[in-house]
Amino acid sequence: MAGRQKKKRKIKYFDYSLLFIIIFLICFGLVMLYSTSAYDAQNTFKDPAHYLKRQAMAFGLGFAGMFVISRIDYRRWKNMGTLAYLVALVLCSLVLIPGIGIEHNGSRRWLGIPNSSMEFQPSEFAKLAVIMFLASLISRMPKKMAKFSMVIRVVLIIIPIFGLIAYNNLSTAIIVLGIGVAMVFVSSPKYLQFFIVGGAGIGAIVLFLLLPSAGYRSDRIAMWRHPEDFEKGFQTLQGLYAIGSGGLFGKGLGNSMQKLGFVPEAPNDMIFSIICEELGLFGAICVILLFLLLMWRFMVIANNARDLYGSLLMTGILAHIAIQVVLNIAVVTNSIPNTGVTLPFISYGGTSVVFLMAEMGLALSVSRGIQFEPDASEIAYD
Fold first, then answer.
1. 3-class secondary-structure state, position 379
2. CA distance 58 to 267
3. Which residues are CB-neighbours of 283 under 8 A, at least 6 positions away?
4. What would the pLDDT profile of 186-207 be if each residue is shown by its tens digit?
5. What is d(CA 22, CA 294) in angstroms, rounded to the nearest whole number?
6. CA 60 remoteness from chain centre
7. What is residue 11's three-state secondary structure?
8. Mean pLDDT score of the chain, rounded to an integer?
9. Lowest-confidence range among 177-186, 211-220, 280-289, 352-361?
10. What is the DSSP string of 240-252?
């Protein structure tokens, strides 16, 4: 008698490749942060590891959050997208109120945490909130996204938070708008709608730059074209000197000269220039390849996610990382006007690290929900 086929058992999945890439980027980021910030930390705080300790604490907190979120079924967050978006709107509004929002270097972008000396940037939370909100909204009405009117409505919904963030932080607002446009693109079967929405978004940014209150933004465009003519172009020029002096293989880890007070904000926005100086073109390409590997794993998870909501979450996370990496490297190489964008996992910044790790937790949670059917050769018989 022929053997009896046993019932197929679905194979559960977890993306260990993604986890390994995340851990590698964290470790590499901490090494480069210490190399970049030790000189300034010693002069300012009498402790060369000051920035390293604070970043390690943020990564520790973020890693714990990532682990917890990765163990929670991502579908449980579906009903919390609207709440997250509304909270982000309130927090971003509070930043603009004098006496509540905290100002640093001429920009009011921070809020203080009650009963502590810690601060955080609501705009970092807004990135995650927009991803959760749009993924929840679009997944509830996927067929309606074929209508141009619905696409416009979805984009208009995120315009308020774009405007609130753009008032003091245009670069982060561009990232938020880019996340929204990318998620609309993958959910809409008509490409023409995407180009219209994308063109409208670019038009909105240009219009924002032309507003009377946007004088300093137009100055940045002039500084981008001729950095040698502006005092604030010093950062751009020193960053380019760092990149050019690195050569093919760099001066060696810890041997950068430009980090010794020449490149402003070296541990933050300009850390890629120090990577180029110390590790050379080879090191810069390796960093870019690491981010490409990270994005590839996001794409794999998005294509195999259990449902549309999971795929949209991964699309938003992919868009966030891709846009931010491209903007940071473009700023450092003076390909676009200088604006404050950090390099994910590598630049110094506690708030960005914590919410970035929360996004990675969501990505791992979506990967945990993937289930595969076994191949015919794996089916057992009695």
1. coil
2. 15
3. 246, 249, 250, 275, 276
4. 888 777 766 776 677 677 667 7
5. 8
6. 18
7. strand
8. 87
9. 211-220
10. HHHHHHHTTT-S-
Q: How far apart are CA 120 and CA 357, in angstroms?
A: 15
Q: What pLDDT was estimated at residue 292?
A: 97
DSSP assignment of 76-97 equals GGGGGHHHHHHHHHHHHHHHTS
105 vs 168 pLDDT, higher one = 168
List beta partners, residue 108.
Answer: 103
At residue 340, what is the residue type?
G
Residue whose tokens read 């093919």: 248
Region for residue 46 given its phi and psi (left: phi exceeds 0; alpha: psi -120 to 50; beta: otherwise): left
Amino acid 301 reads I
pLDDT at position 209 over 80? no
256: helix, coil or strand? coil
| pLDDT-derived band at 231, boundaries 50, 70, 90 | confident
The radius of gyration of the chain's CA atoms, rounded to the nearest angstrom, is: 22
Of these ranges, 139-143, 153-157, 324-328, the one predicted with the greatest mean pLDDT is: 324-328
SS (H, E, C) 125-156: HHHHHHHHHHHHHHHCCHHHHHCHHHHHHHHH
Dist. CA 49–CA 304, nearest whole Å: 42
Phi, psi of 342 (to 5 degrees): -85, 160
By DSSP bridging, strand 107-112 and strand 101-104 are antiparallel
With a pLDDT cut of 90, the percent of the chain lying above it is: 59
Q: Which pLDDT score is estimated for 181?
A: 87
How far is residue 154's CA from residue 140's CA, in Å, rounded to a whole number?
12
Q: Which two structure tokens, joined as six digits, stand for 217?
A: 């933004």
**361: its two tokens:** 């937790």
